[in-house]
Amino acid sequence: MSETSYAVLGIFDNPDALMKAIPKARAAKLGTVEAYTPYAIHGIEEALGLRRSPLGGMVLVMGVLGAITAFGFEYWISAIDYPIITGGKAPNSWEAFIPIMFEVTVLFATFTAGLGMLLLLNKLPFFGHPVLSSKSITGITRDRFALAIEAEDESFDSTAAARALLEAGALEVEVLPAPDRSPFLTSDYILRTLGGIFAACVVAGLAMFFITKWFPLLAPMKHMQDQPRLDAQRPSAFFKDGHGMQLPVAGAVARGYLPAATGTQEQAASLVNPLPRTPEVFAIGRKVFTTRCQVCHGALANGVGSLTAAYGAKPANLQAQQFRDYPDGKIYWAIVNGKNAMPSHAPYLSETERWAVVHYVRALQRAQNAKDEDLKVVAP
Amino acid sequence: MSQSKQTSPTLLRGAMALGALGVLGSYVTAGHERFWANWVFWFVLMFTLGLGALFIVALEHLVNAKWSVPVRRIPERVATLLLPAIPVGLIALCALPVLYPGTRPEAAHNPILAGKAFWLGVPFFSVRTLLSFGLCTLGLWVLVGGSLRQDTTRDPAFNLRARKFAPAFMASFALVITLVAFDWLSGLTPEWYSDIFGVYVFAGAFLSGLAATALCVLHLQDQDRLEGVRSDHLYNLGGFLFAFTVFWSYIGFAQYMLMWYANLPDEVIYYKVRLAGSWRAITISLATLHFVIPFFALVTRDAKKDPKRLRRVAYLMLFAHALDMYWLIFPVLGLEPRFSWPELSFALFFLGGILLWLRGAMQKGEDMPVGDPFLREGLEFRL
Amino acid sequence: MRSDAALPAGDLPAGLVEPGLTVGKVTAGSLDDQVLAFPDQRPPKQWYLALAFTSTMLLIGLFFMGVTVYTGIGSWGNNSPVFWGFGIINFVFWVGIGHAGTLISAILFIFRKRWRNAIARFAEAMTIFAVMCAGLFPLLHVGRPWLAYWLFPYPNQRALWVNFRSPLVWDVFAVSTYFSVSLMFWFLGLIPDIASMRDRTTSKLRKVIYTVLSVGWRGAASHWQHYEKAYLLLAGLATGLVLSVHSVVSFDFATSVVPAWHMTIFPPYFVAGAIFAGFAMVVMVLVVVRESMQLKNLITMRHLEVMNKVILGMSCLMGYSYMMEGFTGWYSMNPTIQHTFLNFVSGTYAWAGWLTISCNIVVPQLLWFRKCRTSYFWMILVSIAVTIGMWFERFSIIVISLHQDYLPSAWRLYRPTMVDYGILLGSFGLFFTLVLLFARVLPVIATTEVKAILPDAQPSHHGDERHV
User: Are residues A60 and B299, on separate chains, in Cβ contact within 8 Å?
Assistant: First the structure.
């Protein structure tokens, strides 16, 4: 009789009886009328006078927000923050942003629907409701339908409510005692919770620190560090002789170095100078000749260079008829392979440089054996 | 398509006559290409609308839908549009050498077209067209004719027959709609191909059939001829309109995005033509009118069962379907998008004809399939 | 026209009468007793045997996954030019299987097909497990799975972002969204059922667990209102996912220019294939469930027959897709594409192509016959054929197109390794182990949803027919 009741439940065993009872219970105006059913009953919302669920609007808004957020995010990342052209597609390719935009829209909408319904609208999880600890809950989640008249204030009369429910057709009634309303947010509770959170953070932080420090050192994470590659100034286990650097396979020719001047000088006679006789080519030839050849062969390619007297060697006089008759290939061969005392100049002369020198030597040869016609003024 | 209660047959006949004059005039003055483009446009529009409606009927039989039985007579009547579409289509065969490069003798010199010349050529094209017409007539006879006959015989055996026939119809429908897409629409640019195109045209056809159905249902409801059809039924129609708007957009976007992504010249040319100059505006309008507006107009639960909203969206959807066909056909003329007196005349002629035909169709049989044993269950349907 | 013009239901010919959704008398109470009793009982010996078998498969798989992570992707058979092998085949296969569950629980809910209620819970669970199996493969195939978080866009010290123009990134988002949404949808559906279990169980530990999991659900009508709305919205959203997720997966292939991959029909074709493969798996598992758990009165032959019809329908859609691909392959007049299509039927891997066609198109045609739709032997035969066929379809698409594409000097055969086979076996082991555990621990039938569709479950309508 003392009014510390939360509500009175009336139990029914079929939905028709429940629906018939609702208007009677509401008309009695003894408290808020709520129903508890094992599944959703059609038409019960109107009968109870419930307001329409705002969930649809919430989901639509959040869905649109998701679309805008996703598209904006993708656009900002791809077109503003770090724009790169990939796959021939412009950074602001809106077509490519649509699939993810759609998925994120669905994601936002779904989580709004699910979590919004549970947390916001139904205020679940909540384990303290009196119905959960009632005798009737077993029936409610099985096959019984309960109609509750809930107390709105202290003037709640549970006896009257019970009578009203029985008159409305309830098979039995149950009075639910009021729940313990002592505040649980005491300062002690708050301090303990905060302390617990702080402790958890410290533990988690330490754990993360040590894990991220040690984790990469475990196999297989460390496999990328142990790579079978050559480290500088270290023996290599990759090759049998322990060397990191290996010579190229016999007969290997570097790119751009074909045709190779292998074989004898006579065989090289058939090689053709691939470079055209342009001022640029001659400039290269002149530069190389002046650097590499002049010291022995002389500025006029006549075999009198600055080293000739010092060495006592006899570099070829390229102005001699023999050398003027040489095909380009044989001169080239000599540059690449060396001849007699002349070493090979191949290691530090590129293909272009070698052939350019050949052109320059030819120019020098012509210069020393000019004819009258060569002195004609050529138009610039 | 619905007409207002006041549109008199005389007005429609007058419009048709005026249109016919313009149509004949345009044959003489506007150039053969433009004439035939308009003719093919209206043929495809009628054919896809009728096919879409017939598909609705067959689908309802295939899945034993009960809620739709009270409104099934409407798409059955709209599907009869296939009958006048046949002579229009036969005349459209004359467009082949004018608009369809694969049918011309020059195709033999084009390496891409030469290999499939027998497919693209007039003889096989015509055979396929006649086959399509035959299959449509068969479908109409069994499904629509049978349903109309059931009004008087009240024999439930028709339901069993229709249920057995529905899968066969679906197979023939898949063939016919794919042929419409590949022959009449992508055949205009025979070097281009897209194997989703049949699905794309299907989506448009289904939507236009749904829209026409919705409009006619609302129209008949206004005349108190569909007693028992409630907002629950309208909600389902609205739901289908919404869902297949999304479906059409998904198919359209998939085709566009895949071709944009690979950027292959022989595929992308299709879209480049439609994004150049004033066609760009048409493309954007198509996306807006066929997807954006209907989507947001029908997204809420209430909108799907609101008769006013449904009517407007259905009109929009039919217009958008027409715009879609226009967008598929007219760019091959090599001109900017245009709508002037030839197009207007064709519109008067064909729209007038279609509305007249539908007007007559709405009198065929009872307004609901009264012989169907599931009619009561359909009327009792609740969300 | 007047509704009294229709025939009374009693005069329907036999072919038009639909069997009920349950067999025999089922009440809300008997439903709970039948279905919710399982988690409280000891499972039969067969369950333990089955679990041992599937766990062995799973362990074998875990071993080979360990080999992959330790050694690297070189332990797989992927090579040039078949850079994508079993990894992506299995991924697409499992994601596809998941779609049936979402279709049953979401799309059929939208269409208000009541028969879906008895099988929706199991189907959704299968979706989640299938997506978990699928998720293994993107994780493993990156080579260094502990760095898989690089796939997500987060601000980092390298100032790098993911490439949003890549379909593989779209996949990351699509499959993650699909998993989250399916999990949410499944969990929400479970809440009222777990509440029933909470109120029935006698074990203290279980009561605590169920209390927490059911988040204090009490069946309040005001809660049901929001709950039903959320469920409807989730079903609608999940419907969009069914179409979009496998379409995004198909974009992995269709956006490329590999011959026979760049076909615009791939998105709906993959979705149809996913539903096809998924329904076959659902049928197989449900046959076992209904027999071993004596649920034949709830998972009736009508359910199986309708699902078999869906399988048949999807088989026809696949047939249409194959026809369109073959036709446009010819129509394209592109010699490389035509060469690839010839490889499907007469190349080195033609056996896979023919296996695909016969298992996917030919064998399911048996389901035109009612006898086959309602016979365990035939429906399981068809389902196994479909499962094999769909796996080999992925194999055909990937391996046949890749092993001989544009550059003949790059043509090479693909040979899967023991590790590949082991992981495939392990994925089946994972899936069936999770299914067995689910059947043991949670209600396999959504009791709440089935209660809502029993006869007399809803109040009868009085008064006005017209509520507009």
Answer: yes
Distant-in-sequence, close-in-space partners of A290: CB < 8 Å, separation ≥ 6: A299
Q: Give the number of A-B residue pairs with CB atoms closer than 8 Å.
A: 14
Q: Judge whether B1 lies within some domain.
A: no
Selected residue of A59, A77, A100, A123 to mutate for chain C interface (largest C Cβ count, 10 A): A100
Domain edges within chain C: 38-147+162-453
Query: B335: helix, coil or strand?
Result: coil
Please tell me the distance in Å from C2's CA to the nearest CA on chain B: 7
CB–CB of A321/A327 below 8 Å?
no
In C, minimum Cα distance to B73 occurs at: C1
Residue of A nearest to C169 (CA): A100
Structure confidence at residue C221 (pLDDT): 95
The residue-averaged pLDDT of C257-283 equals: 96
Residue B139 forms part of a structural domain: yes
Q: b/e string for C24-54 if b means 16 or more Cβ within 10 A? A: eebebeebbebbbebbeeebeeebeebbeeb
Amino acid identity of residue B191, one-letter, is: E
Residues of B in contact with C314 (CB under 8 A): none
Residue numbers of the domain that contains B177: 9-379
pLDDT over threshold 50, residue C5: no
- For chain B, the domain total comes to 1
Q: Give the mean pLDDT of B230-234.
A: 93
Answer whether C299's CB lies under 8 Å from C283's CB.
Answer: no
- Residues of chain C with C-beta less than 8 angstroms from the C-beta of A138: 199-200
**C254 in contact with B, Cβ within 8 Å:** yes
ipTM of the complex: 0.94
Residue C83 distance to chain A (closest CA, Å): 18
Q: Looking at the domain assignment, is residue B302 inside a domain? A: yes
Q: Is the pLDDT of residue C18 over 90?
A: no
Structure tokens, C196: 């029933």
Read off the pLDDT of each residue in A41-51 and give the average, rounded to a whole number: 92
pTM attached to this predicted model: 0.86
Local confidence band at A152 (pLDDT 50, 70, 90 cut-offs): confident
CATH code of the domain occupying C38-147+162-453: 1.20.1630.10
Asked if C251 and B372 come within 8 Å (Cβ–Cβ), the reply is no
Q: Are the Cβ atoms of C6 and B64 closer than 8 angstroms?
A: no
Q: Considering the domain boundaries, does residue B2 fall inside one?
A: no
Tokens of C458: 């809803």
